[in-house]
């Protein structure tokens, strides 16, 4: 019999009889004793760390090979944090474990035997992941585990909403605010004026200038993103650039979100992808960019700049938390202005979870109003430097929002059509389009669990949502 640890197994390892796998995690009680009263009151009860001792044998070709197998065993089993552990005689249960102690093998010729000890800081074991879809605003969710577990809810918004409620018999989660139709009105704080998913060139025209280079070559779409079909030629930066007028502009208070790619690590490639904010005369008001300008090393850096190439103020001009943080970048470039306050944001996006990570946010107060021109256009640009091999460059998505001010009688929308909301009760997280929005949580709301057995859950406003899903994993003592 064997085991699967961190998604891998080893053919040279066998699990022997005599393993110590407790039926449940250890439980510790804390008591209060009252003088003159027999026994005690239970003050507290907690489930402690589970330990699993596994006797194993490793079999090599000879004693020398056995030493190499022990090195491989260490590389496999020693991890920075708990990872999945599955035993082949219990394939539908998963522990989250890491090695503790040492492995002192008794060696006889080509066989080494000993005990591998695992600890599970999360003392529960888990069954397979379950997935359900809400067919109406109320759903029954059956948790087949022997203890409570924590669900994940996801929903796609069909129309603007000010509130999302998820309610059980005992607890509730709520984000945003409801609207009292007698005295309040819903309000679009962020009014989306432009959403281009870069599947068509309609509405785009040639840009007139870019920083430190020439506009040449051709920009096309592959149906999912803007890319260069040709970068043209030039001694410095050269590549195509396109611009689009923002509908219902120009804008004073606004936010621009762009999803871009700079794949620079493979074969050590250079390049840049840039987003320009322009006024009606094509003057640069601000710019966001990801670049790699290094020879012989992959080293991407991000840039957020106010003004043109002469009169300018950098908000971001760095590699991230450390050199290489933004290599092979797929993620968001964002810039926002409200009044005199500018805010720039760069973040990678996990393509599996849509979660933002490796982030940087910087704000700047333009006290003198140097960078106060209204924004009328957006330009996008990808470029190669000289004859250096270009990185993989693309623009996947572009959104522009007008940011409106509001009164106390106006309740802001928290999500618009197409937005994806995820509330993860296991991680205590609230995400909208992969971004943390725990600021929207109602004061009295809480992250809740699904009790063992059947749970009734209601979600609203259901009619304003689609693809309402719930995911959970049964837990066992």
Automatic annotation (TrEMBL):
Annotated ranges, domain Siphovirus-type tail component C-terminal: 402-476
TM spans (from-to): none
Listed Gene3D superfamilies: 2.40.30.200, 2.60.120.860
InterPro entries: Dit_BPSPP_N (IPR006520), Siphovirus-type_tail_C (IPR054738), Siphovirus-type_tail_N (IPR008841)
Pfam family, one: SPP1_Dit
Siphovirus-type tail component RIFT-related domain residues: 12-120
Record-given protein name: Phage tail component-like protein
Source lineage: Bacteria, Bacillati, Bacillota, Bacilli, Bacillales
């Amino acid at each position: 019999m064997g085991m699967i640890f961190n998604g891998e197994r080893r053919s040279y390892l066998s699990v022997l009889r005599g393993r110590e796998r407790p039926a449940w995690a250890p439980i510790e009680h804390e008591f209060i004793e009252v003088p003159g009263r027999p026994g005690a009151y239970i003050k507290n009860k907690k489930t402690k760390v589970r330990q699993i001792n596994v006797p194993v044998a490793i079999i090599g070709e000879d004693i020398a090979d056995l030493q190499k197998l022990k090195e491989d065993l260490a590389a496999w089993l020693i991890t920075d944090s708990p990872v999945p552990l599955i035993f082949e005689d219990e394939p539908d249960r998963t522990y989250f474990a890491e090695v503790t102690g040492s492995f002192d093998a008794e060696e006889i010729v080509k066989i080494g035997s000993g005990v591998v000890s695992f600890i599970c800081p999360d003392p529960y074991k888990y069954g397979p992941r379950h997935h359900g879809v809400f067919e109406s605003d109320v759903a029954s969710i059956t948790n087949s585990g022997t203890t409570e577990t924590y669900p994940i809810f996801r929903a796609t918004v069909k129309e603007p909403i000010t509130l999302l409620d998820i309610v059980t018999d005992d607890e509730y989660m709520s984000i945003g605010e409801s609207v009292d139709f007698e005295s309040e009105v819903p309000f679009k704080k962020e009014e989306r004026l432009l959403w281009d998913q870069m599947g068509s060139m309609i509405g785009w025209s040639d840009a007139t200038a870019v920083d430190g280079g020439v506009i040449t070559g051709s920009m096309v779409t592959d149906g999912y993103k803007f890319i260069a079909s040709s970068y043209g030629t030039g001694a410095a930066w050269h590549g195509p650039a396109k611009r689009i007028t923002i509908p219902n502009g120009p804008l004073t208070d606004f936010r621009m979100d762009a999803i871009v790619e700079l794949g620079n690590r493979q074969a050590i490639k250079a390049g840049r992808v840039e987003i320009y904010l322009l006024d009606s005369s094509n003057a640069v008001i601000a710019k966001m960019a990801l670049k790699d300008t290094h020879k012989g090393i992959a080293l991407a850096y991000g840039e957020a700049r106010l003004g043109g190439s002469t009169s300018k103020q950098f908000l971001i001009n760095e590699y991230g938390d450390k050199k290489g943080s933004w290599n092979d970048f797929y993620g968001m470039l964002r810039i926002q202005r409200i009044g005199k306050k500018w805010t720039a944001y760069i973040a990678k996006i996990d393509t599996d979870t849509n979660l933002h990570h490796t982030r940087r946010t910087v704000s700047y107060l333009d006290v003198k109003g140097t960078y106060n021109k209204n924004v009328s256009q957006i330009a996008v640009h990808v470029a190669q430097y000289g004859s250096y091999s270009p990185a993989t460059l693309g623009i996947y998505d572009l959104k522009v929002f007008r940011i409106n001010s509001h009164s106390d009688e106006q309740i802001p929308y928290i999500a618009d059509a197409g937005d994806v909301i995820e509330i993860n009760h296991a991680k205590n997280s609230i995400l909208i389009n992969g971004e943390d929005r725990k600021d929207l949580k109602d004061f009295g709301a809480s992250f809740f669990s699904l009790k063992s057995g059947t749970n009734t859950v209601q979600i609203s406003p259901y009619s304003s949502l689609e693809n309402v899903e719930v995911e959970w994993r049964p837990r066992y003592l």
